[in-house]
Specification:
Keywords: FAD, Flavoprotein, Oxidoreductase, Tricarboxylic acid cycle. The protein is of the alpha+beta class. It is 33% helix and 24% strand. It has one domain: 3-Layer(bba) Sandwich (FAD/NAD(P)-binding domain), CATH 3.50.50.60. The chain is globular and about 70 Å long. The chain starts with 12 loop residues before the first strand and ends in a 5-residue tail after the last helix.
Length: 497
C-alpha cells in the first residue's frame, strides 16, 4: 500500500474508502472484470481504520441467529421471519465468497478473520418467554435456522451463559435460544487481507489520500480530486466508474458529485460506547454472543449484547452499546460534518425526522447524561455479578443512519439499515447507512455489480457461480444446496470448532 500518489494513473475504477465495502467490490470485480484497472483511495494512514475496524464494529457476524430486532412480533404474537431469513441468506453468500478466496490463495489462515462462536438470544419475564417460544417455533421451520435450540430452564442457561445467570434472581422468568453455528468476524483483518490480495493482482491502494471532489466530465468519465493528507498537494485522476464506500464520508461526497439520486438523503451520526474486559477469568466463562431486547421506545441500534471477541489473537468481552453523539460522520471526521451535510434538497427530510423521532432524541439525551455508575447498573442487569473495576469504556466508530424521503408521504424517515445509491447512467454508486453492513457486504456489492455492470455479470456468470455456488438461487428453498454450501464453507473457513 502506497502513500505516494505519483504512481497513480487514470484507472477504469476508483474506489473511495479503504473499508470492507471497497475491498469486497475490488475482489468481486476481480471475478467479473479481471482485466479492469482499479485504484483505492483511503484518507487515513491505514486501511480499515473506521467502521471496518474490529473495535469500531461490535456487531460482528450478523446472521440473524440472535438479533431479536430482525424477528419482530405482531399484535397476534406471530413472529415475522422474512428479514431474518434475508440477512442469514446474505451472510451465507459472504461465507461462500470468503471460502472461494481462501481456496484460491487468500493469504493467511481463515482464523485471522473468522472463528466459531455460539449466538444466544436472551429475554426475561413471561412476555419475553412467550415471544421467545414463538420465535423459536417460527425460525425452526426455516432451513437456514436448523439446529436452533430453545430453553427456559435456568440450569441449562447457566451452562450456556454462566456470567449472565450467576447471581440472577432464581424466581425471574428467563428464556433463550442458541445457535452453535454462529461466528465472530474481524472485518478489519478481512479488509486488509482482501486488499493485500488485490494488490497482488494489480489493484493500486493509496493511503493518506482523501478524495475531496467528484466532477462528471463531458466524455462520461468522473474526475476525482485527491488531496495528499501530508502536504495538501492535489492531483486528479479520471475513471469510468466511481464507488463511494467511505462509510460516514459517503454522503458528503455523493452530494458533491451532485447526482440526482442523492437528493433528499441526509444522515444522522450516532457514536457508540462499549464496556470491554480482557479478564481471562471472565472471558473463559463467556464463550458466546448474547443479545437481549431493546428497552421500550429505544431504537434497534440500542439492543444490549455481551459479545465474545477475538481480535489479533486475543479474546475479550464487549458489552453495550451505550449511545454517544458527535456531529462527525467519521471517527476522524470534522465537527462540521453534520451541519455541512444539510442542503436545500434534504432539509425537509432532516426536519421531518427531527419532528417524528422524539423517542430517539429522548434515548440519546438519556444516554449522554448517564454516569459511569449508571452505565455499570445497565451492565449488572445483564451480568449480575459484574465488578466495575474489571471493565473499561471504549469509543466505537461513528454510525451515520440514513435519512430519506418516503416516496408516498414525502416526509423524512430514519432508516436503520443500508442504502445503495446507483447513478442513472451507471457510472457512479455509493453505500449509505450501517448495520448489518459488513456482514452482508458481498450481497450488497453483488447488487451494485448487477445494476452497474449487467453485461459483465452475463459474460462472467459461470465465474460468479464458481465463486458463489448459490448465486442466483435461494438457499432457503434448496436444502441440498444449503447442506453442501454449509459443509464446504465450514471446512474451508475452519469453523468446525
Amino acid at each position: 500500500m502506497s502513500t505516494d500518489l505519483g504512481s497513480a494513473t487514470d484507472p477504469d475504477v476508483v474506489l473511495v474508502g479503504g473499508g470492507i465495502m471497497s475491498a469486497t467490490l475490488a475482489s468481486l470485480l476481480g471475478v467479473v472484470a479481471p482485466d479492469w484497472s482499479i485504484t483505492v483511495f483511503e484518507s487515513a494512514t491505514e486501511v480499515a481504520g473506521e467502521s471496518s475496524d474490529a473495535w469500531n464494529n461490535a456487531g460482528t457476524g450478523h446472521a440473524a441467529l440472535c438479533e431479536l430486532n430482525y424477528t419482530p412480533s405482531g399484535p397476534d404474537g406471530r413472529v415475522e421471519t422474512t428479514k431474518a431469513r434475508t440477512i442469514n441468506e446474505q451472510f451465507q453468500v459472504s461465507r461462500q465468497f470468503w471460502s472461494h478466496l481462501v481456496r484460491t490463495g487468500l493469504t493467511g489462515s481463515p482464523k485471522e478473520f473468522i472463528s466459531p462462536v455460539p449466538h444466544v438470544s436472551f429475554v426475561t419475564g413471561e412476555g419475553g418467554r412467550t415471544y421467545m417460544r414463538n420465535r423459536h417455533a417460527a425460525l425452526s421451520a426455516e432451513p437456514l435456522f436448523s439446529g436452533l435450540e430453545y430453553t427456559d430452564d435456568p440450569a441449562e442457561l447457566a451452562q450456556w451463559t454462566p456470567l449472565v445467570m450467576d447471581g440472577r434472581d432464581p424466581a425471574q422468568v428467563v428464556a433463550a435460544t442458541r445457535s452453535v453455528a454462529g461466528t465472530d468476524v474481524n472485518f478489519g483483518a478481512l479488509t486488509r487481507l482482501l486488499l493485500e490480495q488485490g494488490e497482488a493482482r494489480g489493484v493500486q491502494v493509496h493511503t493518506g489520500q482523501r478524495v475531496t471532489g467528484l466532477e462528471k466530465l463531458d466524455d462520461g468519465r468522473w474526475k476525482a480530486t485527491v488531496t495528499d493528507r501530508r502536504d495538501g498537494e492535489q492531483r486528479t485522476v479520471r475513471a469510468r466508474f466511481v464507488f463511494v464506500g467511505a462509510g460516514g464520508g459517503a454522503l458528503p461526497l455523493l452530494q458533491k458529485a451532485a447526482i440526482p439520486e442523492i437528493r433528499g438523503f441526509g444522515g444522522f451520526p450516532v457514536s457508540g460506547l462499549f464496556l470491554r474486559t480482557r479478564s481471562p477469568e471472565l472471558v473463559s466463562r463467556h464463550q458466546a454472543k448474547v443479545y437481549g431486547q431493546a428497552a421500550v421506545g429505544a431504537p434497534p441500534m440500542s439492543v444490549p449484547h455481551l459479545d465474545l471477541r477475538l481480535v489479533d489473537g486475543e479474546y475479550s468481552l464487549l458489552f453495550g452499546p451505550y449511545a454517544g453523539f458527535s456531529p462527525k460522520f467519521l471517527k476522524a471526521g470534522s465537527m462540521f460534518d453534520l451541519p455541512l451535510s444539510v442542503k436545500p434538497n434534504n432539509l425537509g427530510s432532516m426536519l421531518g425526522v427531527a419532528r417524528t423521532e422524539m423517542a430517539l432524541t429522548k434515548y440519546l439525551v438519556t444516554e449522554l447524561l448517564q454516569s459511569r455508575k449508571a452505565r455499570h447498573r445497565t451492565l449488572i442487569e445483564f451480568v449480575p455479578l459484574a465488578e466495575q473495576g474489571d471493565w473499561e469504556m471504549i469509543t466505537a466508530g461513528q454510525r451515520v443512519q440514513v435519512i430519506k424521503q418516503d416516496p408516498k408521504s414525502g416526509k423524512g424517515v430514519l432508516q436503520f439499515g443500508t442504502e445503495l445509491i446507483v447513478g442513472s447512467d451507471r457510472s457512479i454508486a455509493g453505500l449509505l447507512g450501517a448495520s448489518p453492513g459488513a456482514s452482508t457486504a458481498v450481497s450488497a456489492m453483488l447488487t451494485l455489480i448487477e445494476k452497474a455492470f449487467p453485461d459483465r455479470v452475463a459474460a462472467r456468470r459461470s465465474a460468479l457461480e464458481e465463486a458463489i455456488p448459490s448465486y442466483g438461487r435461494d438457499l432457503s428453498s434448496d436444502p441440498a444446496l444449503l447442506a453442501a454450501v454449509r459443509a464446504e464453507t465450514m471446512q474451508t473457513l475452519e469453523l468446525n470448532g
